[in-house]
Design brief:
alpha+beta, Thrombin, subunit H, Pdz3 Domain, 4 domains
């Protein structure tokens, strides 16, 4: 489509130019024909397009391919000991095969099948080495949920990597591979980048290793609604590029390619990278403690509109408007009030509201900070004690997520059966399958199934069922009574090892 559009554009240009030249043949006269000396034309400086070949040769060896895998336990349902096979045969005869059947069937005759774990590929991404001893930066979403992570260099050496830590808020992950004198990238300064400068990306889009694309910086601090402003460029980035470096013409990495704005699922001309300054700060914390500690002051904020700024006597529509203060939180104790406009944090100006979370997050926890607010037509400095921001896992626990959201050893997410569903199925108890993964998925269970029994014990609710599953022996197979529609069937499952 692009080729056709280009071709059409070229054709239009040629036709238009021809009409201008030949359509006025009786009027158009060259200066020489009039006896006039040709005017000297202004010299146009020659534009030399960049050549990235030397740059790629220098930095390419430090960019790596990241492959993640997941271990699925095979044989836990229908492919294990003789008693499992006999149970499945009985169930098939009794229920006539109307219920879920295992995806992996037991071999008939011969030796007994031994339950095994099969390693299956989960995803592919990119990364880059930042130290000669094997520390690698990538995206958190590249390694999320992986059981094993493999790093492959351009010289085809492959290493099993250890995930030191990952931070979902910034989408940064730190890995470690065992090696010495490894190629590494030079860390740049993302604060010094300029809109319009050339940059390149190297990664593995669609699993095509060591792919180089080029473009320019489109914006320095693009607010995408995430925790921190991102670098926007027009460098072609596609699935598989995630975690790879964004590199300037000096061979310095200035960002980690993380997101794309797309309507198709692939590159549409806009890509985003995590600034390397923030990525390195996160990486250092992950290296020291395996987690990232951030501060908070307990306020909800919004943008300051032009109309609000004018009505409050502010010269510019800058800062963060406080819309709510957490009762008993640090800001509340310090005296910050709804309606205050936060202009600075520890002297750093707040250009837009998204600047504040980043600055507060980087402040010393349990230390004193100064918040400059605009209140009643004047600036006021307020000291506030920054406290630790709860991690995402801790926050989820504090939110009291329902029992249904917990994944148990059978690979099931379950919830209590709604009253209407109980009435429809004419049952008094049980749990509803919300999602099935691992051994449960292999056995054919799916969302919407209702579990009535576990090893001859009646299932009452999600809390009790998950408690029963937690006590199961991973060396033994359990019988789960599953109701689907008007039919019920026992399915044999072996829980995964904790």
């Amino acid at each position: 489509m692009k080729k056709n559009m280009c071709a059409a554009s070229k054709s239009f240009s040629v036709k238009t130019l021809s009409a201008l030249l030949f359509g006025t043949a009786g009027v158009f006269l060259a200066p020489s024909m009039l006896g006039l000396a040709p005017q000297a034309q202004a010299a146009v400086p020659a534009v030399k397009l960049p050549d990235f070949s030397d740059l790629v040769d220098a930095v390419g060896p430090a960019v790596v391919n990241i492959r993640t895998t997941e271990r699925l336990r095979m044989g836990g349902a229908g492919a294990g000991s003789q008693d499992e096979q006999e149970m499945q045969e009985f169930l098939r005869r009794f229920f006539g095969g109307a219920m879920p059947t295992p995806r992996q069937q037991a071999p008939r005759g011969g030796r007994r099948a031994v339950p095994q774990e099969q390693e299956v590929q989960r995803g592919v991404g990119s990364g880059f080495i930042i130290s000669a001893d094997g520390y690698v930066l990538s995206n958190a979403h590249v390694v999320d949920g992986a059981d094993e992570v493999y790093v492959t260099l351009t010289d085809k050496r492959e290493f099993k990597a250890k995930v030191i830590g990952a931070d979902a808020r910034t989408d940064v992950a730190l890995l470690k591979i065992e090696g010495g004198n490894l190629p590494r990238l030079t860390i740049g300064d993302s604060n010094k980048i300029r809109v319009g400068e050339w940059v390149i990306a190297i990664g593995s889009p669609f699993n095509l290793e060591n792919t180089v694309t080029a473009g320019i910086i489109s914006a320095k601090s693009r607010d995408t609604g995430d925790y921190l402003p991102l670098i926007q460029s027009d460098v072609a980035v596609n699935p598989g590029n995630s975690g790879g470096p964004l590199i300037n013409m000096r061979g310095e990495v200035i960002g980690i390619n993380s997101q794309i704005a797309t309507l198709s699922g692939a590159y549409n001309g806009i890509s985003f990278a995590v600034p390397i300054d923030e990525a390195m700060r996160v990486g250092e914390q992950l290296k020291k403690t395996g987690k990232v500690v951030r501060g908070r002051i307990g306020v909800q904020i919004g943008e300051v509109s032009k109309d609000v700024a004018e009505s409050l006597g502010l010269p510019n529509a800058k800062g963060a408007q406080v819309s709510m203060v957490e009762p008993g939180g640090p800001a509340d104790k310090a005296g910050i009030k709804p309606g205050d406009i936060i202009l600075k944090f520890n002297g750093a100006p707040i250009e837009r509201s998204s600047d504040l979370p980043r600055l507060v997050g980087g402040a010393a926890v349990n230390g004193k900070s100064t918040v400059t607010v605009w209140r009643k037509g004047a600036q006021q400095d307020i000291p506030v004690t920054v406290v630790e921001l709860e991690s995402e896992k801790t926050a989820k626990k504090g939110a009291r997520e329902p029992e249904a959201q917990a994944v148990n050893a059978l690979g099931l997410k379950v919830s209590d059966v709604p009253a209407a569903k109980k009435q429809e199925l004419k049952i008094d108890a049980g749990v509803l399958v919300e999602d099935a993964d691992g051994v449960a998925a292999l056995a054919g269970l799916q969302p919407g199934d209702v579990i009535l029994q576990l090893n001859n014990v009646a299932v009452k609710d999600a809390k009790q069922f998950n408690a029963l599953v937690a006590k199961l022996d991973p060396k033994k197979t359990s019988a789960v009574l599953v109701r689907r529609g008007d039919t019920a069937q026992f399915v044999s499952l072996r829980p995964s090892a904790k």
